[in-house]
Each structure stands twice: as structure tokens, then as C-alpha cells.
């Protein structure tokens, strides 16, 4: 069975924060064990069986890693329980899960992890680089369950691009997603903050992308000269200095949006590599807002959305003032 681990909060995400509350013996339940008799989620199961503690106290037991399912620590409230499993409590608080930096987990199951990445964080480092990456942090995360667990790159976001991205939890799933990417991925939508007033409210940019000796991508308008790239855009907001675009990718090439925005004379703000002159929000103005795909095992259509960063609206507010 495919076990899903959603990570709920205000935006259906989980924040990995350290719990500094000191527990007291009064709030700790004695070590007990319960047998699951029918399908349920972990928090409702605990609330049903532990009647001498408040809801907040039970949630604290989960946060502190004092709840075990089949002798494995589980901290997620909506962890799926199945008949025959055992749920037990331990008095001793386990070591805290280290906080994740620049990452929010939107969804996790046996096959995939979907996250929201902050700008400035590398997806994966080269062999020569040792800095913190999404890949390294998620690898540590999955190895909390089993030291042999791994994650596999399906696609990437540039260091300075924020938003939704996905990793596979096995090589089989990675290959399945990459081999069927065009059919499996139903929607990839970005928000781009670009320089100048984009006068055409909607448009499509098509070119063949190539990479120079300096590793910069550029467009060739000769048919079949490079990788074909198609980008659709729609203007959401604009003034005399900037425009905010909703960008839909028909293909997913390296730096595709950045190159195509330069091609139409409206480079993404903060993108000096592709001709930008301004940096009004202190970062690259590109955000992966929506990722929708067919789950490789269940066949279910999943859709994940991330809010537009508030800083993307700041340049327009300044103009209004």
C-alpha cells in the first residue's frame, strides 16, 4: 500500500521547528501499547485511546518523538494506521529532528517527496561543492526511518528560483517519472517578475536552446538547432517599470524562462546573467508556483501550489506611492 504523509499547516506544509517546551512528568503518559483494529490516522487514534491527556498534550507527545508505530518513531499527525499495527508511548523524549533550512515539505509518500524551496538554496551540489542543499537535507530526512533510504533527483530549480519541486524515493520511480515526464506532468506554472512593461497581454515564445562555452543558454531561431523550448505567458500586473507574468512551460529546458524573457526584451529582475539591469527584490524574480502530475504508482492526479512571494508585489507598491 502506498503510504502518504501529508504535512499539514496553513499552506499544507510542515515546518521543521525545534520544540523548546520543557515537558513535565505530569504531562507524560505512562508507557502503554495499543493495537490498531481498524484504519485510522494517528492523532485521532491517540485522542480516542488516551483519555487522561488533553489534545495539546497528545500533540506534544508526537512532536517530542514519544509515539511509536510498530516500534518506529512517528511525529506526523495524519500518519495512516492499519489493522494489526501497534501504537506505543515512551516516556523518554528522543533527540529532536534537526530543522530543515529553506525547505517546507508539502507531501510525502513511499514514492515521492514534494517540497517548497526558498530562493538561494541549491537543489543539488556538484561533487566539488560541500554547501547545504535540498538533496542533502532530504537525504538526512528519509534516513531517519532507515539509514539505507535515498532520494533521487527528478527535476531541478535554479539556486535563486523558489517554489515547488519534487524528488523520487527510489530509482525506479525516478526513471518512471523522467521517462514519462511530458505525459505525467500536467501543469508547471511559474511567476516571473520582469523588467519593463510587457504590452502584449498573452504570448508564446518558441526557440531552440543551446549552451555556450561559458555555460550560458541562448536561443537559436533555426529549426532543430538545439533543444526545442516553448513558453506561454500571461500578464498579471504591470506598470511603467515592471511586469508580473504567469508563465506556463510546455517544455522544461535549462534556464528556459530566463532565456525567453531576455528574448522578448523583458529579462527577469535580478537576472544579471540574462541582461537584467535592476534588482528591486534582492533576488531573482522567478517562482515555481504550481506543479501537477500523475502519481507514478497510484495514477492519482496531484496538484501542489505555492503562494506568490510577497516581495514580488513590492515594486508595484513603490510605484503607486
Automatic annotation (TrEMBL):
The keyword NADP does not apply. The active site is at residue 158. It is an enzyme of class 5 (isomerase). It catalyses: a uridine in RNA = a pseudouridine in RNA. InterPro entries: PsdUridine_synth_cat_dom_sf, PsdUridine_synth_RluA-like_CS, PsdUridine_synth_RluC/D, PsdUridine_synth_RsuA/RluA, RluA_PseudoU_synthase, S4_RNA-bd, S4_RNA-bd_sf. One of its GO terms (molecular function) is rRNA pseudouridine synthase activity. One of its GO terms (biological process) is enzyme-directed rRNA pseudouridine synthesis. The keyword Amino-acid biosynthesis does not apply. Residues 1-17 have a biased composition (Basic residues). Its EC number is 5.4.99.-. Residues 1-34 are annotated as: Disordered. PROSITE patterns: PSI_RLU (PS01129), S4 (PS50889). Residues 41-102 form the RNA-binding S4 domain. Residues 18-28 have a biased composition (Low complexity). Keywords: Isomerase, RNA-binding. Belongs to the pseudouridine synthase RluA family. Responsible for synthesis of pseudouridine from uracil. NCBIfam families: rluA_subfam. This is Pseudouridine synthase.
